[in-house]
Amino acid sequence: MSVRTIWRKSVNLVMLSLTGACAAITVAFLFFILGYLIYHGGKDLSWNFFTKLPTPVGEAGGGMANAIVGSAKLLLLASLIGVPIGFFGGVYLAEFGGRTFSFLVRYTTDLLNGVPSIVIGIFAYTVIVLPMHQFSTLAGGFALGVMMIPIAVRSTEEFLHAVPTSLREAAMALGASKWKTVATVVVPAAIRGIITGIMLDLARVAGETAPLLFTAFSNRFWSPGWRQPTASLPVMIYNYAISPYQDWHRQAWAAGLVLLGLVLVANIGARLILSRKTMLQRT
Amino acid sequence: MATVTGFPNPSLALGASRVNVPGEAKPSPGAEVPPRLKISKLSFFYGSKQALCDVDLNIATNRVTALIGPSGCGKSTFLRTLNRMQETIRHTRMEGQVLLDNQDIMQMDVVSLRRLVGMVFQRPNPFPKSIFENVAYGLRVNGWKGNLREAVEHSLHRAALWDEVKDSLHKSAYALSGGQQQRLCIARALAVDPEVLLLDEPCSSLDPVTTAKIEELLFHLKESCTIAIVTHNMQQAARTSDFTAFLLDGRLIEFNPTSQLFTTPADPRTEAYITGRFG
Amino acid sequence: MATPASVVERAAPPSAPRALLRRLRHGDEIAHLLTLIFASSIILITSVIVYELWINSHLTRLKFGWHFFFTSTWDPVFEQFGALPFIYGTLVTSAVALFIAVPLGIGAAIFLAELAPPKLSDSIAFVIDLLAAVPSVIYGLLGIFVLVPVMRTTIEPALKKTLGFLPLFQGPMYGVGFLTAGVVLAVMIVPFIISVSREVLLAVPGDQREAALALGATRWEATWKVVVPFAKTGIMGSIFLALARALGETMAVTMVIGNDPKISASLFAPGYTIASVIANEFSEATADVYLHALVELGLVLFLLTFILNGLARLLILATTQRGSVHA
Q1: What is the pLDDT of residues B21-80, one digit of tens each?
Q2: What's the ipTM?
Q3: Residues of chain C contacting residue A210, judged by C-beta atoms under 8 Å apart
Q4: Which CATH architecture has domain C66-326?
Q5: How far out from the chain centre does Cα C206 lie?
Q6: In this complex, how many residue pairs, one in chain A and one in chain B, have their CB atoms less than 8 Å apart?
Q7: Less crowded by CB within 10 Å, the N or C end of chain B?
Q8: How many domains does chain B have?
């Protein structure tokens, strides 16, 4: 073996090991994040955390009950916007759309997907907060709903496309009209994927902070109805983290753990649901 | 016209209703019975490409008519025009006329047409539902008002599948074997009581034993149903059909009683095909 | 001939079934219309976003014109607004992020696409997808309490000692600043580089690799000199995609950049990005001009990400199609 070959083989070994190291480092990031949150956040996770309202600075024992409820309300509103538009938009693209208009819709959906979340917040502000002259759950829910649309559309379309044409033909040959075929055969066949897509979409939107900063704003107390500003988990984490108070820092960790836990459960759950053998695969 | 013995006729909310017409007895071989489908000067185009050219054909009532020919000769295209399935493909055009019992199928409502003219596809394509729901689907979609369970059971009997699935009706259709799935698809198509059943190479993905079962099925079915079957397998055509049509390059070359076509073909091209010189 | 009964019952469709048939056909049309409306609403919403961004920034567009982008004063009190510090901050933090994330990401993608057995590759890809799902504010949390102290006490001093001759690594070290923000951004965008690059590399036809190996190349040589160049455009696309994400990233950056609208040569210095200033000051913008200045920044961000995403998609499309043409 010549010197050159030895050199080449060494380079080979070194570079390949380096790539492995890159992959290992990236994987380590996730475990590092998770570990840190469990360590710091786990300590302060208590019954109080889930049931009590925030207390004034200096008083111990405060919780994030209003933030949890607030986030839930925001997600509910978001799904009222995101799910119908996403689902029916996806059905349109997969089943009914004409060539040019579908292209336009897809292009616009991708465009919307790329809009930074803070800009969506500005949009919700101009469209809802300004006319209402106040921050509100409505505005926050609207912003999150708009953010949900692109992913809901894309995943619905994808899973509908995955249903084989032969099923559609079988239904039509039996005399089912187009919409009946879609409603009674195609959508049920794709429903598992569509639901997981929406689940993941909700998880993503649940962690968004920027669009809420000047739409739902924040609230130290309960937020009655939909027209008042409301606390939310991510905004609470942000406010507490940048504050100078130790107690609030600890609560930020706990809240971070809860938020990350929800996001991970949704992601892993979606993966499990999709990988389980469906009726289609059982032999 | 066929009725389902012992069962009430489906009273359908949509489409024409079917009535047992007394006086039309089971036709004996050779009796003069008007053809169920009359196809005249049928041409079909995929865009600018012509797939069928001036086909004239009659599909005899309560008989099995086989369509044979080499790959790409247009036999599947032809079959699919009979229940207007070709309309699901873009940029296609049909010329000529197809009459179902003297009614132009293009004038009929396509949904009613497809209830009267059923189809079984090349590969079994049961829905991702239970066996029961698969057979019941056509009935539900067409607004069946009768007893669903009885109708499903009857269809499964007609498809010779009942004994094998009667205890597992609520299991997934995908739990069945390929041959069973295809018979399920036949049951599904039969559930809406079609007058005509179109089969597009139904046995091409099945083993010989299952194929034989399905061929036997067709023999019994034709008593109540008019059958048109596309097949690649000439022996199958010879075994199962009463009439055979030979297509080549989109044209009908010969159409004769099966025994005649296979023993003394009228056209030299037919002879060349059936003796295996091409195709 | 068909018997009279059969002719009658189908030749003259009774009125009730005909009305029902019409409704059935309308069912299809209704479904088409319903779904069309929802699909059109997407186009409507996006158009309104652009519209609102445009009209709610007209005060500053009229007042400052193009100077907006070249002035560095940001003075709400005297209503002088210049976007330069934020553009600078956005570009610098993104550059630092790419500097770190691109080699890391491409390296990991190469490992996953070329070396790892399929099951391992899929599992690791899943973990990386999870990383992409972590909310920004959580990265910020770890940024403030973990990274900033480490930067201030360990990393920045080390850099100053070794590379301090560069103006990049001079000046006081606060922990917060361009460098820290860049590092956090890098961790956040690396999953996108990895997942897109991995797919693009996997799409390279196998015979390319085999041809190189058959000529006696080592695994690394085959990968680096043949496969990666083949997928080059797609990898570029993934970088553009990651850059677009980095530009719009708000929370994590806001929490660690120091929020100081100044332009500095040093990476240790605190700065400000477009997204951060909007996040921090929007809810407090009292005067209309102030608000319009912030909205104009939002418009800039929108345009930048629009262009980058568009380019990214074109590049990725070009690679995957090229792969299939060769296959």
Answers
A1: 344 444 444 456 788 899 999 999 998 899 999 999 999 999 999 999 998 889 999 999
A2: 0.90
A3: 136, 250-251, 275, 279
A4: Orthogonal Bundle (1.10)
A5: 30
A6: 78
A7: C
A8: 1
